[in-house]
Specification:
397 residues, single chain, globular
């Protein structure tokens, strides 16, 4: 059982997580380089100004002369721009969608220029491979971390930073935009806000709006941080961070992103310690409890609690179309759309995904719905994406 838990820990941990190349002889060896993009001043959808915005990005493949072979990858809540490859030859983990990005794979780097960027307020603010501007960044007006004075940002703000990144490389259109979960929200927003720039939309385990179920789920994720005394209304950068609250929040994320079938099949009712019976020892744990705690503790090492809260807010406020009705926002999408989802998803419930598909295709836009099989629920959109390889290859061509 211990080896099974370790393999699970590694797989789950991996889930939660180049300059323009012009040579015609370009070949990808799987090694990627992290780059940074800077904006002197960025105005949010709420009208607030954020000076000195910096985000990290990486790319796989070659940008063609026409600059029309671009696929934008938008990442999930706990993810980053590291969608494929590795930073050094022996490095781990590989990017979360390494199964479908690379030479000869569905997102073929011999054909497409695939680019991904860290979002604003990226959860992994303390990861050296992540570059992001958010509450943990220094406010140039005060010389101190922003904390909760950082402006509220939205999914549309993430999209606008990506747009400026693309335009800095002379990219005006996208062969496709693809993302999972929170990345699906960004992909949908791209297609709704810029229908003339997006040729194909691929939404994975995501829908067109944060429905009441998701609003409440996100609120539950945030609660442990706010209840940690060390959070101190977000003013903890010169003291002890709210690590305990952050761990509990991340544990909830991992649990909800999975499915009860996975939990039951993987753990049964095994004890964390074979010599400590929870029926006899109030401090004894079950194996699933210990595994979730271990995953959360590892993730907390590179995460920031305030960034977590800002991401919760960005997801809660999402509705395709930025302020229009959901029907109008989704009707604005003209790109042929592929929606990959799980019938076992406990975050973006399948009924909501199907409703999103109905609203997109209501005015004649072509929509393809395909399910991903597995026992991981929401996480099947990351861990089982290779199931859709043939569908992705056809859709992109």
């Amino acid at each position: 059982m211990a080896s099974t838990r370790q393999m699970l820990f590694t797989a789950t941990l991996c889930s939660g997580l180049g300059l323009l190349l012009t040579s015609p002889l370009w070949a990808w060896d799987g090694i990627v380089e992290k780059h940074t993009f800077e904006i002197d001043s960025f105005t949010t959808q709420g009208g607030e100004t954020i000076p000195n915005v910096t985000v990290g990005w990486e790319a796989y493949g070659e940008l063609n002369e026409a600059r029309d072979n671009v696929i934008l990858i938008t990442h999930f809540f706990s993810g980053s721009s590291h969608a494929a490859g590795r930073y050094d030859q022996d490095g781990e983990p590989t990017g979360y969608w390494d199964a479908i990005i690379g030479p000869g794979k569905p997102l073929d780097t011999d054909e497409y220029y695939i680019i991904s960027s860290d979002t604003l307020v990226n959860l992994n603010a303390n990861d050296p491979n992540v570059t992001t501007t958010g509450p943990a960044s220094i406010n140039p007006d005060t010389g101190e971390p922003w904390g909760m004075d950082f402006p509220v940002v939205t999914i549309r703000d993430f999209v606008e930073v990506q747009r400026e990144l693309l335009e800095s490389q002379g990219i005006e259109s996208l062969h496709a935009v693809m993302g999972a979960s929170m990345g699906a929200l960004q992909a949908i927003e791209w297609a709704s806000a810029y229908p003339d720039r997006v040729e194909r939309l691929i939404s994975v385990i995501g829908g067109g709006v944060a429905d009441p179920w998701l609003l409440a789920t996100l609120s539950a994720w945030a609660a442990p941080i706010r209840l940690d005394a060390n959070w101190n209304e977000g003013n903890y950068y010169d003291g002890e961070p709210p690590t305990d609250g952050l761990k509990e929040a991340l544990k909830l994320v991992t649990l909800n992103a999975n499915h009860w079938q996975w939990a039951n099949e993987t753990f049964n009712r095994d004890w964390a310690d074979e010599e400590r019976d929870p029926a006899q020892d109030i401090n004894a744990r079950y194996a699933i409890e210990q595994t979730l705690d271990d995953i959360a503790a590892t993730r907390a090492e590179t995460s920031d609690a305030n960034h977590f809260l800002y991401l919760v807010q960005a997801n809660q406020t999402f509705m395709a179309g930025h302020g229009e009705s959901l029907e109008e926002g989704l009707a604005a999408i003209e790109a042929p759309t592929l929606m990959l989802y799980s019938e076992k998803d406990l975050v973006f419930v399948p009924e909501g995904v199907r409703r999103t598909a109905e609203l997109i295709e209501a005015d004649g836009t072509d929509v393809t719905l395909e399910t991903l099989e597995g026992n991981r629920g929401h996480l099947d959109g990351v861990l089982s994406i290779d199931q859709a390889s043939d569908t992705l290859r056809e859709f992109l061509q």
